[in-house]
Design goal:
The protein has twelve helices and 21 strands. The chain is α/β, with parallel strands linked by helices. The strands form three sheets. Strands 4, 14, 15, 16, 17, 18, 19, 20 and 21 form a nine-stranded mixed β-sheet that branches. Helix 9 links the parallel strand 12 and strand 13. The longest helix has 20 residues. The protein is globular.
């Protein structure tokens, strides 16, 4: 199977995190998000242990909440000792409602409003990751009005292309995030921050993208960043205390995807950075990284009920399910690949189908050209693997459809972490 938490019982029924998928579908209905809490905790510990081994106490992984954010997720992160990055008031609010400590929140975002800035300041958020000159000015003003000195990192753009999905590529010079190093603007950005009386510049942030598998991407990024840090020391006398390298490693969505050796890659990265520190004569900074997808993706499985099967002789055939782009828009957005399985039995004779959703959009495709039992029919259950990241968090109410519930699986137990949206919830804000 794609992941060790996916198996089949002797009768062929799918099991996820040790529990029967058909039974869970009967209990909670479909569409249904299943989340393996034990796998989430395992992935957190994988990063935490790798960071301690590679960097000692001078490093911390931050969970990227945008991958999947609800209260139980933040409780897990607090209990496991992770930091978190948040990109909106909503993510900050959710973390605080879950009891997550504000001082371990890093507030990101390229379009923070004055209201966002004020809310985060008043909530005692530990760090801002400042994305541009205007935000820096606004934050300095609002921090001054409160008589505080806010800790920040400055987001700069290293000009690295990680060869990932274009939609999640954030490292090139011309992306909307941060301030580019290559044009000289990042140097001026640091100088402006050092001149702010209500700002404490703690270090630098960069982010080259998501789904990074290329083994040299983080090392190449570190090369650029250490050269820039040396320039700052020589020109401004500023020694960078913290360096945030952004996103974590990629995840297996299909059998063709590589398995990232996260501890091995982090150990190699640490050795590379120590060599850079020695070469440039700089102290080793405190290291941050922001894994999201690789913490939660393989902890997720989405279950659907087949609504219709349309076999068009001489053309493609479709399996249409009771969910779709409303609960997983990733294929529609950037042609993301997934593994699809029949949830009740192994396939004998097979056929190829497009797995389609129920929305009134011809583009509502969950995954094209999937192999399923040739005799699949209405009422059967199918499962899409590796849906823990950017499925629930990107879900919508398009076509006035309610979002599915999130059921957490933990140590053989199960509980509802997020309730299903019913018809009343869909109209709750209507006047």
């Amino acid at each position: 199977m794609l992941s060790s938490n996916i198996t089949r019982d002797p009768g062929g029924a799918l099991r996820f995190a040790g529990q029967s998928v058909p039974e869970l579908a009967r209990l909670y209905g479909t569409p249904l998000y299943l989340m393996d809490e034990d796998r989430i905790r395992f992935n957190c510990r994988l990063y935490l242990d790798a960071f301690r081994s590679a960097f000692g106490d001078a490093a911390l992984p931050l969970y990227a909440g945008k991958a999947c954010a609800f209260k139980q997720m933040y409780r897990i992160m607090a209990e496991e000792g992770m930091g978190v990055d948040a990109v909106s008031r909503g993510e900050i609010y959710t973390a605080l409602k879950a009891g997550f400590p504000a001082e371990r929140i890093w507030f990101h975002g390229d379009g923070k409003t004055d209201e966002d800035i004020c809310y985060a300041l008043d909530s005692g958020v530990g760090f801002f990751v400042v994305d541009g000159f205007e935000e820096l000015e606004a934050l300095n003003r609002e921090a001054g009005a409160r008589g505080v000195r806010q800790k920040i990192l400055l987001r700069v753009t290293p000009g690295i292309d990680p060869h990932t999905y274009e939609a999640v590529n954030t490292g090139r010079v011309d992306v909307k995030f941060g301030v580019p190093i290559g044009t000289g603007q990042a140097y001026d950005f640091v100088r402006a921050a050092l001149a702010c009386s209500h700002i404490e510049l703690c270090g630098l942030h960069c982010h080259v993208g998501s789904m990074v598998f290329d083994e040299s991407v983080f090392e190449d990024t570190a090369d650029v960043m250490f050269a820039f840090m040396r320039e700052l020391k020589d020109g401004l006398g500023y020694v960078t205390g913290t360096l945030d390298l952004g996103g974590g490693y990629g995840t297996r969505y299909t059998e063709a995807d590589k398995q990232a050796d996260i501890p091995g890659r982090i150990a190699f990265l640490a050795a590379h950075m120590r060599a850079l520190a020695a070469k440039t004569g700089l102290p080793m900074p405190f290291i941050l990284m922001e894994p999201g997808r690789s913490i939660v993706a393989d902890a997720g499985l989405t279950v659907y009920t087949v609504s219709a099967v349309k076999r068009i002789e001489g053309f493609k055939s479709h399996v249409i399910v009771d969910g779709g782009m409303t609960d997983n828009p990733r294929y529609c957005l950037y042609r993301a690949h997934y593994t699809v399985l029949h949830a009740e039995r192994e396939a004998g004779e097979t056929a190829v189908f497009d797995l389609a959703g129920r929305c009134c959009e011809s583009g509502d495709i969950l995954q094209p050209a999937v192999t399923l039992p040739a005799d699949i029919k209405r009422g059967d259950l199918v499962a899409v693997c590796t849906t823990g990241a950017y499925n629930y968090s990107m879900a919508s109410n398009y076509n006035r459809l309610g979002r599915p519930p999130v059921v957490m699986l933990r140590g053989g137990e199960r509980f509802v972490a997020v309730r299903r949206e019913g018809l009343d919830e869909l109209c709750a804000l209507d006047e």
